[in-house]
Design brief:
- Residues 237-445 form the Metalloprotease TldD/E C-terminal domain.
- Residues 125-230 form the Metalloprotease TldD/E central domain.
- It comes from Halovibrio variabilis.
- One of its GO terms (molecular function) is metallopeptidase activity.
- The chain is built from nine helices and 18 strands.
- It folds into three domains: 7-227, PmbA/TldD superfamily (PmbA/TldD fold, 2-Layer Sandwich), CATH 3.30.2290.10; 238-251 and 351-444, no CATH class; 272-348, no CATH class.
- Strands 3-2-1-4-5-6 form a six-stranded antiparallel sheet.
- It is an alpha+beta fold and 446 residues long.
């Protein structure tokens, strides 16, 4: 990187700025205040056909202040964390707070819930990577994929590496800081046959650069995924079992968490309103978050309001065991925060796992979906309809690739119809899961 990033120095600077903003807010008459500040620096390179396409060095910072005058709330932010800017941001937030309407649910989280356990969760792993080294890794990744017989063209390879610091403080006296890093490498390739061109990709991502997969392996896997899509055709129309690839199964969990989120619940905009304690999945399935997991993608000892994070079990033996609440949404629902201001962290499932081959055998005849298109999910009703691509399966064996079809169902019915979970767990994101086999969905093809 062009400029070294001193995370500890940035941590000290942002801490001082947050304390300065809180003191100023109090002096100007705010009853309560909270401050979030962050700074991030990164390097990104992209290559295509053996040539460098882009090199980007980025540095972003920001400070956001929320003030309360009684139960009136005002917020303002800036990308400049200087003392002059902080003065302007605090004054602006205070002016807004004095003229907004009162909201009985507004205010800081309960002071008794502030985080007191603040361990180092090992999420900061800086990478002393020069621009030339980053380009070399991206080129090696792409070349490994292009060297695979049958690859016609490349859409390029990209490498990104970044680290940052965030600080949250409020007038309860809480101040929490965390340093973090994120690194990734991806490759997208194109193959062609008489039926036309196909495209696919692979990537690796981790907080620790030592945990990234070998660049050549990523390139070759991108080639394998691309070549297996050649000769795709439309599947028959009907009702069939559907196997969701791990990355797509993670999306289904995302829809579940969206339905459990307090913001959707208090607005009566979720298909899971008033369902606490009721069955949703088979009784062998449980789902929880583990925010204090060492080195994981979304680990943090405190949430976006300074509340101590904790393991939360959202689904327990198939039933809805907990909603996902911030202090505000909890007050609107007459409940208590679950430490989820900012979302769920490190979602893990507890279920018996099977091999993909076993799930395909159990499926018999149906579709293994590896790509989804469109945004056809209704969070209010749970109705689900997406464009898809994947593979047709007969007698438990993959027969040929399929594309240009849609799959449709209802999330509640899909969750109840979960037949099995694969052991092919995708660990690249915050949600870890393997493939999901759903017993029946409507397929619109030929």
């Amino acid at each position: 990187m062009a400029q070294a990033f001193d995370a500890s120095a940035q941590q000290s600077l942002l801490t001082a700025r947050a304390e300065e903003a809180l003191a100023l807010a109090k002096r100007l008459g705010a009853d309560a205040a909270e401050v979030g500040a962050s700074v991030d620096q990164g390097l990104g390179v992209s290559v295509r056909l053996g040539e460098v396409e882009t090199v980007e060095l980025s540095r972003d910072q920001g400070i956001a202040v929320t003030l309360y005058v009684g139960q009136r709330k005002g917020s303002a932010s800036s990308t400049d964390a200087s003392s002059v800017s902080i003065q302007a941001v605090v004054e602006k937030a205070l002016a807004i707070a004095r003229y907004t309407g009162e909201d009985p649910a507004s205010g800081l989280a309960d002071p008794a819930l502030m985080a007191t356990e603040l361990p180092d969760l090992k999420v900061h792993h800086p990478w002393a990577l020069t621009t030339d080294e980053a380009i070399e890794l991206a080129l090696a990744c792409e070349q490994a994929g292009r060297d695979v017989e049958g690859i016609y063209q490349s859409d390029g390879a990209s490498l990104s590496s970044g680290e940052g610091v965030r600080v949250y403080a409020n007038s309860h006296g809480f101040l929490g800081t965390q340093k973090g890093s994120r690194h990734s490498l991806s490759c997208m390739l194109i193959a062609q046959d008489a039926a036309g061109m196909q495209r696919d990709y692979d990537y690796t991502s981790a907080r620790d650069p030592q945990a990234l997969r070998d660049p050549a392996e990523v390139g070759r896997e991108a080639a394998t995924r691309t070549l297996r899509r050649l000769g795709a055709k439309r599947p028959p129309t009907g009702t069939f079992p559907v196997l969701f690839d791990p990355s797509l199964a993670g999306g289904l969990i995302g829809h579940l968490l969206g339905g459990l989120a307090g913001g959707a619940l208090y607005r009566q905009a979720s298909f899971l309103c008033d369902r606490l304690g009721t069955p949703l999945f088979p009784d062998w399935f449980s789902l929880e978050e583990r925010p204090m997991e060492i080195g994981a993608t979304a680990s943090s000892p405190f949430d976006g309001e300074g509340v101590q994070t904790r393991n939360n079990r959202f689904i327990d033996q198939g039933a809805i065991a907990s909603y996902m609440l911030s202090s505000y949404s909890a007050r609107r629902l007459g409940m208590q925060t679950t430490g989820n201001a900012g979302g769920a962290r490190n979602v893990r499932l507890n279920a018996p796992l099977q091999s993909r081959d076993s799930l395909l055998q159990e499926m018999g005849r149906g579709i293994w979906v590896t790509e989804l298109m469109g945004q056809g999910v209704n969070g209010v009703t749970g109705d689900y309809s997406r464009g898809a691509a994947g593979f047709w399966v007969e007698n438990g064996k993959v027969q040929y690739p399929v594309e240009e079809f849609t799959i449709a169902g209802n999330l509640e019915r899909m969750f109840a119809g979960l037949v099995g979970v694969g052991d092919d767990t995708d660990t690249r994101g915050s949600v870890h899961t393997g493939s999901w086999l759903i017993d029946a969905m409507t397929v619109a093809g030929d």
